[in-house]
Amino acid sequence: MEINMEWYRVFYWTACTSSLTRAAERLHISQPAVSHTLKQLEMKLGGQLFVRTSRGVKLTTEGEVLFKYVEQAFSFMAAGEKKIGEMHKLQTGEINIGASDTLCKHYLLPYLEQYHEQYPDIRIRVTNRTTPETLSLLKEGKIDFGIVNLPVEDHKVDFRTSSILQDCLVGGRRYADNQGVALPLQHIHNYPLLMLESGGSTRHFIDAYASKLGVTLQPEFELGSIDLLVQFARSGFGLAFVIRNYVENELFSGDLVEIPLVPPIPERQIGIATLRGVPLSAASARFLELLP
After folding, report:
1. Whole-angstrom distance between the N-terminal and C-terminal Cα of the chain?
2. Which residues, 6+ apart, have CB-to-CB distance to 133 below 8 Å?
3. Which residues in 123-135 are b (16+ Cβ under 10 Å) and which e?
4. From start to end of 93-229, where are the E strands?
5. 59 DSSP β-pair partners
Protein backbone atom coordinates (compact mmCIF):
# COMPACT_ATOMS: atom_id res chain seq x y z
CA MET A 1 0.00 0.00 0.00
CA GLU A 2 1.54 3.29 -1.14
CA ILE A 3 1.07 6.55 0.71
CA ASN A 4 -1.25 8.90 -1.10
CA MET A 5 -0.38 12.62 -1.06
CA GLU A 6 -4.01 13.26 -0.13
CA TRP A 7 -3.35 11.51 3.19
CA TYR A 8 -0.78 14.16 4.04
CA ARG A 9 -3.19 16.90 3.03
CA VAL A 10 -5.71 15.49 5.53
CA PHE A 11 -2.99 15.14 8.16
CA TYR A 12 -1.80 18.72 7.53
CA TRP A 13 -5.20 20.35 7.89
CA THR A 14 -6.15 18.26 10.90
CA ALA A 15 -2.94 19.37 12.60
CA CYS A 16 -3.49 23.01 11.58
CA THR A 17 -7.10 23.11 12.84
CA SER A 18 -6.76 20.64 15.78
CA SER A 19 -10.16 19.33 14.70
CA LEU A 20 -11.43 16.50 12.50
CA THR A 21 -14.59 18.48 11.83
CA ARG A 22 -12.81 21.67 10.76
CA ALA A 23 -10.36 19.67 8.64
CA ALA A 24 -13.29 17.99 6.91
CA GLU A 25 -14.88 21.38 6.23
CA ARG A 26 -11.62 22.75 4.85
CA LEU A 27 -11.16 19.75 2.57
CA HIS A 28 -14.85 19.46 1.60
CA ILE A 29 -15.08 15.83 2.72
CA SER A 30 -16.89 14.08 5.58
CA GLN A 31 -15.51 13.71 9.09
CA PRO A 32 -15.53 9.90 8.87
CA ALA A 33 -13.43 10.22 5.70
CA VAL A 34 -10.91 12.31 7.61
CA SER A 35 -10.80 9.80 10.45
CA HIS A 36 -10.40 6.87 8.03
CA THR A 37 -7.60 8.58 6.15
CA LEU A 38 -5.67 9.34 9.35
CA LYS A 39 -5.98 5.71 10.46
CA GLN A 40 -4.56 4.58 7.09
CA LEU A 41 -1.63 6.95 7.47
CA GLU A 42 -0.98 5.80 11.04
CA MET A 43 -1.07 2.16 9.97
CA LYS A 44 1.42 2.87 7.19
CA LEU A 45 3.79 4.79 9.45
CA GLY A 46 3.35 2.41 12.37
CA GLY A 47 2.44 4.91 15.07
CA GLN A 48 -0.28 7.16 16.43
CA LEU A 49 -0.24 10.74 15.12
CA PHE A 50 -3.08 12.32 17.11
CA VAL A 51 -4.69 11.95 20.53
CA ARG A 52 -8.22 13.11 21.23
CA THR A 53 -8.81 15.90 23.76
CA SER A 54 -11.89 17.68 25.03
CA ARG A 55 -11.17 20.43 22.49
CA GLY A 56 -10.48 18.23 19.50
CA VAL A 57 -7.25 16.46 18.60
CA LYS A 58 -3.62 17.06 19.47
CA LEU A 59 -0.44 15.87 17.78
CA THR A 60 1.57 13.15 19.47
CA THR A 61 5.35 13.47 19.68
CA GLU A 62 5.66 11.43 16.48
CA GLY A 63 2.93 13.57 14.90
CA GLU A 64 4.80 16.78 15.77
CA VAL A 65 7.96 15.44 14.09
CA LEU A 66 6.03 14.51 10.96
CA PHE A 67 4.18 17.83 10.90
CA LYS A 68 7.43 19.83 10.76
CA TYR A 69 8.34 18.07 7.50
CA VAL A 70 4.85 18.08 6.04
CA GLU A 71 4.44 21.78 6.85
CA GLN A 72 7.71 22.53 5.09
CA ALA A 73 6.65 20.45 2.08
CA PHE A 74 3.33 22.27 1.77
CA SER A 75 5.12 25.57 2.18
CA PHE A 76 7.42 24.67 -0.70
CA MET A 77 4.47 23.64 -2.84
CA ALA A 78 2.70 26.92 -2.08
CA ALA A 79 5.87 28.81 -2.99
CA GLY A 80 6.08 26.82 -6.22
CA GLU A 81 2.48 27.66 -7.09
CA LYS A 82 3.17 31.32 -6.37
CA LYS A 83 6.27 31.25 -8.55
CA ILE A 84 4.33 29.65 -11.40
CA GLY A 85 1.72 32.37 -11.07
CA GLU A 86 4.41 35.04 -11.19
CA MET A 87 5.90 33.41 -14.28
CA HIS A 88 2.54 33.41 -16.03
CA LYS A 89 2.18 37.10 -15.15
CA LEU A 90 5.76 37.66 -16.41
CA GLN A 91 6.87 38.90 -12.99
CA THR A 92 9.76 36.44 -12.97
CA GLY A 93 11.40 33.87 -15.22
CA GLU A 94 13.97 33.76 -17.99
CA ILE A 95 14.30 33.18 -21.70
CA ASN A 96 17.23 31.61 -23.51
CA ILE A 97 17.72 32.63 -27.13
CA GLY A 98 20.12 31.41 -29.78
CA ALA A 99 21.13 33.70 -32.64
CA SER A 100 24.17 34.68 -34.68
CA ASP A 101 26.05 37.89 -33.89
CA THR A 102 24.62 39.50 -37.02
CA LEU A 103 21.00 38.55 -36.36
CA CYS A 104 21.34 39.59 -32.74
CA LYS A 105 22.66 43.04 -33.65
CA HIS A 106 20.59 43.85 -36.71
CA TYR A 107 17.33 41.97 -36.09
CA LEU A 108 16.92 40.95 -32.47
CA LEU A 109 18.28 43.91 -30.50
CA PRO A 110 15.30 46.31 -30.89
CA TYR A 111 12.88 43.63 -29.71
CA LEU A 112 15.13 42.74 -26.78
CA GLU A 113 15.13 46.39 -25.72
CA GLN A 114 11.34 46.59 -26.02
CA TYR A 115 10.81 43.36 -24.09
CA HIS A 116 13.23 44.30 -21.32
CA GLU A 117 11.50 47.65 -20.89
CA GLN A 118 8.10 45.95 -20.53
CA TYR A 119 9.25 43.01 -18.39
CA PRO A 120 12.41 44.06 -16.50
CA ASP A 121 12.25 41.11 -14.11
CA ILE A 122 12.61 38.51 -16.86
CA ARG A 123 16.22 37.40 -17.31
CA ILE A 124 17.36 37.22 -20.93
CA ARG A 125 20.26 35.07 -22.10
CA VAL A 126 21.45 35.17 -25.70
CA THR A 127 23.87 32.56 -27.02
CA ASN A 128 25.62 33.66 -30.21
CA ARG A 129 26.09 30.78 -32.64
CA THR A 130 25.73 30.06 -36.34
CA THR A 131 22.39 28.75 -37.59
CA PRO A 132 23.49 25.06 -37.57
CA GLU A 133 24.91 25.45 -34.07
CA THR A 134 21.76 27.26 -32.90
CA LEU A 135 19.60 24.38 -34.09
CA SER A 136 21.83 21.91 -32.25
CA LEU A 137 21.47 23.92 -29.03
CA LEU A 138 17.69 23.99 -29.53
CA LYS A 139 17.47 20.20 -29.90
CA GLU A 140 19.70 19.75 -26.84
CA GLY A 141 17.26 21.86 -24.79
CA LYS A 142 19.86 24.54 -24.06
CA ILE A 143 17.83 27.39 -25.59
CA ASP A 144 14.09 28.05 -25.77
CA PHE A 145 14.08 29.17 -29.39
CA GLY A 146 16.48 30.27 -32.10
CA ILE A 147 16.64 33.09 -34.62
CA VAL A 148 18.09 31.58 -37.79
CA ASN A 149 18.77 32.26 -41.43
CA LEU A 150 16.49 30.40 -43.80
CA PRO A 151 16.33 28.23 -45.82
CA VAL A 152 17.08 25.36 -43.48
CA GLU A 153 15.22 22.14 -42.69
CA ASP A 154 15.04 19.92 -39.63
CA HIS A 155 12.22 17.46 -38.95
CA LYS A 156 12.49 18.09 -35.19
CA VAL A 157 12.09 21.86 -35.51
CA ASP A 158 9.23 24.15 -36.49
CA PHE A 159 10.16 27.27 -38.43
CA ARG A 160 8.14 30.48 -38.59
CA THR A 161 9.22 32.90 -41.29
CA SER A 162 9.91 36.49 -40.32
CA SER A 163 11.68 39.37 -42.08
CA ILE A 164 12.96 39.12 -45.66
CA LEU A 165 16.72 39.25 -46.27
CA GLN A 166 18.40 40.28 -49.49
CA ASP A 167 22.05 39.41 -50.05
CA CYS A 168 24.07 41.63 -52.35
CA LEU A 169 27.60 42.28 -53.58
CA VAL A 170 29.31 45.47 -52.42
CA GLY A 171 32.65 47.18 -52.64
CA GLY A 172 34.32 50.26 -51.16
CA ARG A 173 34.70 53.69 -52.75
CA ARG A 174 37.42 52.43 -55.11
CA TYR A 175 34.67 50.49 -56.88
CA ALA A 176 32.47 53.56 -57.41
CA ASP A 177 32.78 53.20 -61.20
CA ASN A 178 31.26 49.73 -60.92
CA GLN A 179 28.17 50.97 -59.07
CA GLY A 180 25.00 49.99 -60.90
CA VAL A 181 26.96 48.15 -63.61
CA ALA A 182 25.63 44.59 -63.87
CA LEU A 183 28.29 41.96 -63.22
CA PRO A 184 27.71 38.43 -64.56
CA LEU A 185 28.47 36.03 -61.74
CA GLN A 186 30.82 34.11 -64.06
CA HIS A 187 33.12 37.16 -64.10
CA ILE A 188 33.37 37.54 -60.34
CA HIS A 189 36.74 35.75 -60.32
CA ASN A 190 38.21 38.93 -61.84
CA TYR A 191 37.87 40.65 -58.44
CA PRO A 192 39.26 39.91 -54.97
CA LEU A 193 36.42 38.34 -53.03
CA LEU A 194 35.52 38.60 -49.34
CA MET A 195 33.19 36.01 -47.78
CA LEU A 196 32.08 34.59 -44.47
CA GLU A 197 33.82 31.54 -43.13
CA SER A 198 32.45 28.14 -44.13
CA GLY A 199 30.02 26.38 -41.83
CA GLY A 200 27.29 28.97 -41.49
CA SER A 201 23.96 29.07 -43.30
CA THR A 202 24.71 32.38 -45.05
CA ARG A 203 27.95 31.09 -46.59
CA HIS A 204 26.18 27.88 -47.58
CA PHE A 205 23.37 29.87 -49.23
CA ILE A 206 25.78 32.00 -51.31
CA ASP A 207 27.87 28.97 -52.29
CA ALA A 208 24.69 27.12 -53.34
CA TYR A 209 23.54 30.12 -55.42
CA ALA A 210 26.86 30.19 -57.27
CA SER A 211 27.05 26.41 -57.67
CA LYS A 212 23.68 26.31 -59.43
CA LEU A 213 25.21 28.63 -62.04
CA GLY A 214 28.33 26.51 -62.40
CA VAL A 215 30.54 28.94 -60.45
CA THR A 216 32.85 28.04 -57.59
CA LEU A 217 33.54 31.01 -55.35
CA GLN A 218 37.14 31.33 -54.17
CA PRO A 219 37.48 34.12 -51.60
CA GLU A 220 40.80 35.76 -50.81
CA PHE A 221 39.57 36.59 -47.32
CA GLU A 222 37.24 34.52 -45.13
CA LEU A 223 35.96 36.45 -42.13
CA GLY A 224 33.88 35.62 -39.08
CA SER A 225 31.08 38.17 -39.30
CA ILE A 226 29.13 40.47 -41.60
CA ASP A 227 30.51 43.47 -39.69
CA LEU A 228 34.06 42.41 -40.53
CA LEU A 229 33.12 41.93 -44.18
CA VAL A 230 31.76 45.47 -44.23
CA GLN A 231 34.91 46.89 -42.64
CA PHE A 232 37.22 45.06 -45.05
CA ALA A 233 35.10 46.07 -48.05
CA ARG A 234 35.11 49.72 -46.95
CA SER A 235 38.90 49.53 -46.66
CA GLY A 236 39.18 48.41 -50.28
CA PHE A 237 40.22 44.78 -49.80
CA GLY A 238 37.71 43.57 -52.39
CA LEU A 239 34.08 42.78 -53.08
CA ALA A 240 31.98 41.27 -50.30
CA PHE A 241 28.73 39.38 -50.10
CA VAL A 242 26.69 41.09 -47.40
CA ILE A 243 23.03 41.52 -46.47
CA ARG A 244 21.63 44.71 -47.98
CA ASN A 245 19.26 45.21 -45.03
CA TYR A 246 22.26 45.67 -42.74
CA VAL A 247 24.37 48.08 -44.84
CA GLU A 248 21.77 50.64 -45.88
CA ASN A 249 23.59 53.45 -44.06
CA GLU A 250 26.90 52.62 -45.74
CA LEU A 251 25.22 52.47 -49.15
CA PHE A 252 23.50 55.80 -48.54
CA SER A 253 26.72 57.51 -47.45
CA GLY A 254 28.70 56.07 -50.35
CA ASP A 255 31.16 54.21 -48.12
CA LEU A 256 29.92 51.11 -49.94
CA VAL A 257 28.57 50.74 -53.46
CA GLU A 258 26.36 47.92 -54.65
CA ILE A 259 27.32 45.98 -57.73
CA PRO A 260 24.27 44.19 -59.18
CA LEU A 261 24.81 40.56 -60.07
CA VAL A 262 23.40 38.71 -63.06
CA PRO A 263 21.44 36.69 -62.21
CA PRO A 264 20.51 38.35 -58.90
CA ILE A 265 20.80 36.53 -55.60
CA PRO A 266 17.39 35.16 -54.51
CA GLU A 267 15.67 36.55 -51.44
CA ARG A 268 15.65 34.57 -48.22
CA GLN A 269 14.12 35.04 -44.79
CA ILE A 270 14.86 35.10 -41.11
CA GLY A 271 13.26 32.17 -39.31
CA ILE A 272 12.10 31.67 -35.73
CA ALA A 273 12.94 28.10 -34.73
CA THR A 274 11.13 26.24 -31.94
CA LEU A 275 11.35 22.60 -30.94
CA ARG A 276 8.45 20.64 -32.40
CA GLY A 277 5.94 19.45 -29.80
CA VAL A 278 7.57 21.31 -26.89
CA PRO A 279 5.50 24.14 -25.35
CA LEU A 280 7.13 27.49 -24.72
CA SER A 281 7.25 29.18 -21.34
CA ALA A 282 5.00 32.18 -20.85
CA ALA A 283 8.02 34.49 -21.01
CA SER A 284 9.26 33.01 -24.30
CA ALA A 285 5.79 32.94 -25.85
CA ARG A 286 5.30 36.63 -25.04
CA PHE A 287 8.64 37.54 -26.59
CA LEU A 288 7.81 35.72 -29.81
CA GLU A 289 4.59 37.73 -30.02
CA LEU A 290 6.74 40.84 -30.47
CA LEU A 291 8.56 39.44 -33.50
CA PRO A 292 7.10 40.04 -36.98
Report:
1. 55
2. 98
3. eeebebbbbebbb
4. 94-99, 123-128, 145-149, 157-165, 167-171, 183-184, 193-196, 221-223
5. 50
**Residue 229: in which H helix or E strand, if any?**
helix 226-234
Assess contact for 10 and 23: CB atoms under 8 A: yes
Q: What is the DSSP letter of 122?
A: S
Which is nearest to 203 in space by CA: 213, 193, 214, 188? 193
Give the Å distances, CA to CA, from 99 to 113, 133, 143, 270.
16, 9, 10, 11
Distances (CA, A) of 173 to 123, 243, 256: 43, 18, 6
| Most distant pair of Cα atoms in the chain: their distance | 103
DSSP-assigned letter for residue 185: G
Burial class (CB in 10 A: 0-12, 13-18, 19+), 141: exposed
CA dist., res. 276 & res. 156, Å (int)? 6
Q: Which amino acid is at 273?
A: A
Question: pLDDT tens string for the chain (292 positions)?
Answer: 466 889 999 999 999 999 999 999 999 999 999 999 999 999 999 999 999 998 899 999 999 999 999 999 888 888 778 777 776 777 778 899 999 999 999 999 999 999 999 999 899 999 999 999 999 999 999 999 999 999 999 999 999 999 999 999 999 999 999 998 999 999 999 999 999 999 889 999 999 999 999 999 999 999 999 999 999 999 999 999 999 999 999 999 999 999 999 999 999 999 999 999 988 888 999 999 999 9
